[in-house]
Amino acid sequence: MSAPLIALSLNEWDARYAELRAAGLKEPAYGGPLSRHLDEGDLRLAKLRFDPSPAALRLWNFLLTEEERLAQARASGKKIVGTMKDLGTVPVMAYALPNLTAFYPDGAWWIPCVMEHSAGVYRAADALGVDESFCPVRAMLGAFATKAHFPLPDLLVCSVGATCDDFSAIAQRLNGLGHPVFWWEIPHRRAPVHGETAVRLPTGFAAPSEQVAFVRGELERVCHALEELAGEALGRERLAEGIRVANEARNRLNELRRLVYRTDPGTPCPLPALEMLIAEMLIIHFCSDREETLAVYADLLNEVRTRREAGIGMAADAVRVFWVNPVADLRAMNILEDCGGRLCGTEYLFCHALDAIPEDIEPMDALARTALADPMVGPSRDRADRICRDAELGRAEALIVSRIPGASHCPYEAGAIRAAVERRLGIPVLEMEIPPVSDAFQPALRTRIEALIETVRNRRG
Q1: pLDDT tens across 339-378, in order?
Q2: Where are the beta strands (DSSP E) in 365-427?
Q3: The pTM is what?
């Protein structure tokens, strides 16, 4: 027998919070009721449904207090590094130096959804000439202009080269507005040709050794900039320890993914899609607190293990869906489950931040291999191959590819991924574009996901 997992509205969480407090709930310093974030402008929370566990409460409070942590870091004398575009590489170096804190200004693409346009970041970006023809990361430009969502970094680092055209254009505009950017180049990853030494990357991709050497040289330039900002040397031992701790976080997240996504058929899913999306997003820069990220993951793992033993979770017969590309509107995860689906895997453009960084080679070489493993810097067939492999592990019955509005790469890459999945796995694929705030689109979104779920149920016989 299994027990259903009942998600809670924001109002219901107030009663749940009081119940947990009465039972002796112990919270971190950033704890408190979820509803307080509504008063701080996070309006979207009122339209979401949340996992009812103390572990989920800690996860959400951790996510929604990052701005406060960055302000506290600056007040304590730490230097703040804004690491743009590489998604999971430079922060490992930054956190290896004790007086640096790193975060991704790119994460501002969530602001218009979470705050339902009340923050005005798109309006500010529009005024600077970056309109809705660009992808939603243009919110980052508006966040810098309004100076209202994070402290301005002491150093801005951005990868350039084989990156999203929209992002490069926005970062260049930022540089021109008086926010100097330290650029480092990532080349387009290619397959080794005859006679070249091949290097296996953490994600399973391959690259020529000369490309790895080039990226190492670029990361050494970044390292020197970080050392100058910190006023102390990074050194091999510090970097190796930083990699070890980063791998500990990655290992915990990967264990969480295994326990949630790869359950046996006919068993309930022990954690909702919404909380899994948030948990996965933490890994790219530890939500500005590496040690607390480890603690948040530990709580989630304990909760999931307990639920698996007790048979607690969402409907055991829910259709297993693999989801490709981040969804700015968090409601999409609730909608998937409303329609009878459940996540069995994801690919959110940063699989190189999930896989363990090699610890048996020189630390800078290891980071160079990790950076070059970025699915965004290689051919679409590499990314599609990784997606197919992971979808097979999750026993996916369907796949959703959500195109990112305005993103220059999406119209082509999404189609290539869809074709590869249909050819190799033979499962139905839904390809669609979801706006950052999808209220007007939600009837169509529900209809399309319901049709996908019904298709799978008919195929089950």
Answers
A1: 999 999 999 889 999 999 999 999 999 999 999 999 989 9
A2: 398-403
A3: 0.96
